[in-house]
Amino acid sequence: MQFADFLDCLQCPVCTNGLEFKSVEGANRPDPALDGHFGVLSCGCSKYPVIADIPVLMEKPLGLMSHWNDGAVYAGPTPGQIVSLIEKGDWQEALIQALVFPQIFPGHWRLSGKPYWPTRLTRRAGLVITRQRLDKLLFKERRSLTVKAWTDLFFAKRSGNNDYLSEYFSAKVTMPRFLSAMALVQRLPRGREPVVDLACGMGHVAGYLTERAASSQAIGIDLNFHQLWGARHLIARKAWFVCGDFGAGLPIKSGRASAVICSDAFQFLPDKPMTMGEIERIAPGEPIIVARAGSLGVGPANPPWGGELTPGGYLELLGPERTRIFADDRLWKDYLLRRDPLVQTVPNLDDLAWEKYLSFAVNWQALDPMPSSEERRPHALGQLVVNPYYRAVESGASELDLQFGFSSIWGAYEDADMSAYVQKWVTLEKGLIEKGIADPESDTARDLIERFILHQPIDCQSLLRFSCRCGPRCRVGTRKHLGDQRGIVLLLAPVPAYRRAMICRQLLWFCRCPRRYASSSSGSWSAICHGAAFVAGRVSASIAMLRHAHQELCTSPHSRDH
Asked: Residue 480 burial by CB count (10 A; 0-12/13-18/19+): exposed, middle or buried?
């Protein structure tokens, strides 16, 4: 799909008319960060900017939208202001204005959990710091820019956003949530009209759709411009993206989509009935996949401000007679075992009462058959790289040792199910990884892919790091062990009761470090932490079992006798 064909699929979200593109010559010298189309889209009512191939089809300001709190962390310039910069030929300033945000200094947080800037001076100082960082990443280090460096800027604690999202976007292709979505997405129609990815994030799903055999065109829609820029220029270069507001209607012409996917974001949509009406308009009778939607009443609310539905509520919204429902924990297992989820037993709603995340396939009869076993796995398309969760800790004469470990406490909680399909400790022959990367179709590469040691690229650089077994920040003999710190923090973290027992068992599996320390104090500290973790895990498991038994007794028909 060329740029002109992509624009032909779009419409104004206000007047629903077609859009006419006018390219504008830039006044600045061409720069690698300024690749793509810059110009203005116009219709009968409005003008919209096109920034580096990304149309901004909405009226609300650009900025840093929160994934954790309701609303915007920072509201930036309006699309009209960006249009004025582009019409003047100042491409560079238009790109910077669409991305910049004021960094937050320590302590500048409201009691509500949202950031604030006490004075205009601190706000301006935060903007200057971010502009300097953007100038370095976009123009000085553009050739070597990585996804991890990009996400670290926009999802660091100083940005006011949830810092776990940096790990989430840079290593998503190995997480259970991605695998469960791929169990259904890999059956979407191929080679037809484009597939629309709602709330596409950094474009991982769109990247798979454009890279698979007999690939499909993909159009991603999201509210955060910085995520779309990273998706277009770092992850999914063959896909197209639109910055739009779901509350104002989808900027896609009627009947122009062959399928719609919304992964890990459906509960965040503000007006779900209106959005479903828009989906039916752009893809009438076509497959619709809703992956990983949070169930109301199970565990903590996600998002905290509301938006989740019950399993019955989702089915009523999507259409119960045409919709298949799946437990998310079952889907990623189907992916690993290459099973067709649609031939499995349809679960009852009562069986899903304790499932936190659910997935749905609407008009599932229109899905394509399962891909051939000879086709490369969705998590291993493109040039392979080493799983970022693995770190090389020791190397002998002929062998290389890799240890698995999470980058954050919240990541260990959210993605604890990875313990079911990744090895904690891997010993490989030296040169085996380089051999697998050089020949992705070899038996060596296939084995490493199935073991999740190699996967789809997320960076343009290899992420294999040589460090202590506990992580790159650990300094044996000079500071407390990172693995022990993780164990203590996990014990003190507010883990929901519905998953406490499982989390204690799975996370402790990752938190223990087999290294023997040189100093006796370090070893004693490790023993104390591991002992406390073991006791806490047993106590938490017992509490969870007692709560479950109490609930069953209270809901049984013979509860009075008990």
From this structure: middle
Choose the weakest-confidence range: 109-118, 274-283, 320-329. 109-118
Could you give the CA distance from residue 342 to residue 353 in angstroms, rounded to a whole number?
21
Is residue 74 helix, strand or coil? Answer: strand
If one counts every other C-beta atom within 10 angstroms of the C-beta of residue 478, the result is 7
What pLDDT was estimated at residue 91?
Answer: 87
Rounded Cα–Cα distance for residues 385 and 206 (Å): 19
**Which tokens sit at 101?**
């945000």
Would you state the pLDDT for residue 222? 92
Query: Domain spans of the chain?
Result: 3-164, 172-371, 382-466, 478-562
Quick: pLDDT tens for 378-394.
888 767 778 888 887 76
Q: Which of 455, 437, 417 is nearest to 207 (CA)?
A: 455
Cβ-based neighbours of 230, under 8 Å, separated by 6 or more? 147, 150, 151, 169, 202, 203
Q: Does domain 172-371 have CATH number 3.40.50.1000?
A: no
Q: Which burial class, exposed, middle or buried, applies to 408 when counting CB atoms under 10 A from its CB (0-12, 13-18, 19+)?
A: middle
Contact of 483 with 412, CB cutoff 8 Å: no
CA distance 168 to 490: 19
Helices (H) and strands (E) in the chain, counts: 18, 18
